[in-house]
Design goal:
By secondary structure, this protein is α/β, with parallel strands linked by helices. About 45% of the residues lie in helices and about 15% in strands. It has 15 helices and 12 strands. Strands 4-3-5-6-7 form a 5-stranded parallel sheet, with helices on both faces. The longest helix is centred in the middle third of the chain and has 22 residues. It is globular and about 55 Å long. It binds fructose -6-phosphate. Fructose -6-phosphate (F6R) binds next to helix 5 and helix 12.
């Protein structure tokens, strides 16, 4: 059942090229310049007339929502707010019938997310679901939706659900960008064809596994870790830190790289590994200067870089390469080494990777 892998989590990490392809199969028709998604097409007016999109989710799905905020605002020029479902539902939020709410949930059963949907519907908002489990409560409760088609995710730590959620949300953003006329034909075409290359680029990113195992061995006994990223890769830093904490029980925090000097920099010394996402295009030079600041305080730097990078290689203690892609698609690649890293560290520490202590796969109570 684990398909020759030691754990479901590792199997699911390796399934991502296929899972991402399954997510866009039948939807992304790059050669015809079409993205086909019935749930969006049938409700296009609602999306185009929306004041804003509110995204609600928990945990890893909330991180996918944060990536989506960058994608929707950057590509489709639609204003987005991303909310923890638990906070949103209890703070008397302002919701009108001009709002579109997108709920993201792998299981489709998360209690707080479900309650947030019910609240938004009561207030007249149009509610769209992005779920993995077909026929789940959230899938049934929403007005329309798009499944991720990632296949069953058994490992408690979410991996392929995250990258496929980002894939679905990217398809939606591209459809809206096209419908709004904010994208030129050539830019639209560039995105569609690049998206089709992502599965093979994820495959390439997975080939760093042996190197990542070596790095995991160096840092497996750390008690604290920092994860930094900017722009599209800030949510990836949060996700990298969450993955490490939940399966290896090492304390980890993710931050936008520029926030480091507003506090976390005080933590940095020779015992602090700092994982920095430093891919080209995404404010690269600014991240390089953040890396220099860490280095001058003797922090250990493990950088995720674009293939062929030399500048960061000179500064970092370890570099892990990912293939080059469009900036907005980089989270689909930069996430991969961070998943593998937390997996190997957890295994080396003797942790129960697929069923970490105190955690459940679906959180049906608030
Ligand atoms: C993290 C993790 C959790 C879930 C969260 C939301 O690896 O698994 O943080 O992401 O409980 O679950 P869903 O997406 O099922 O609503």
């Amino acid at each position: 059942e684990k398909g020759g892998y030691d754990h479901f989590m590792l199997k699911e990490i390796y399934e991502q090229p296929r899972a991402i392809k399954d997510t866009y199969r039948g939807r992304l028709l790059a050669d015809q310049g079409i993205i086909r998604m019935a749930g969006i097409d049938q409700n296009m007016e609602k999306f185009l007339n929306a004041n804003r999109i509110i995204i609600v989710a928990c945990g890893t799905s909330w991180h996918a929502g944060l990536v989506a905020e960058y994608i929707f605002e950057d590509l489709a020029r639609i204003s987005v707010e991303v909310e923890y479902a638990s906070e949103f539902r209890y703070r008397n939020p302002v919701i009108t019938d001009k709002d579109v709410l997108i709920a993201i949930s792998q299981s489709g059963e998360t209690a707080d997310t479900l309650a947030a949907i019910k609240l938004a519907k009561e207030k007249g908002a149009f509610v769209f679901g992005v779920c993995n489990v077909v026929g789940s409560s959230i899938a049934r409760e929403t007005d329309a939706g798009a499944y991720t088609h990632a296949g069953p995710e058994i490992g408690v730590a979410s991996t392929k659900a995250f990258t496929t959620q980002i894939t679905v949300l990217t398809l939606i953003a591209l459809k809206l960008a096209k419908a709004k006329g904010v994208f030129s034909e050539s830019r639209y075409h560039e995105y569609l064809t690049e998206l089709e290359t992502i599965p093979s680029k994820v495959e390439k990113a997975l080939q760093s596994n042996t190197l990542i195992e070596i790095i995991a061995d160096v840092y497996k006994d750390s008690t604290n870790c920092l994860y930094l990223g900017r722009g599209y890769n800030f949510p990836v830093a949060l996700e990298g830190a969450l993955k490490l904490k939940e399966i290896s029980y090492i304390h980890a925090e993710g931050y936008p790289a520029a926030e480091m000097k507003h506090g976390p920099i005080a933590l940095i010394d020779e015992h602090m590994p700092v994982f920095v996402i430093a891919t080209k295009k995404g404010h690269y030079e600014k991240v390089v200067s953040n890396i220099q600041e860490i280095k001058s305080r003797k922090g250990k730097i493990i950088a995720i870089v674009t293939e062929g990078d030399e500048q960061v290689r000179d500064l970092a203690d370890h570099v892990i390469e990912v293939p080059e892609t469009l900036e907005s698609l980089t989270p689909l690649l930069t996430t991969i080494p961070l998943q593998l890293l937390s997996y190997h560290i957890a295994v080396m520490r003797g942790c129960n990777v697929d069923q970490p202590r105190n955690l459940a796969k679906s959180v049906t109570v608030e």
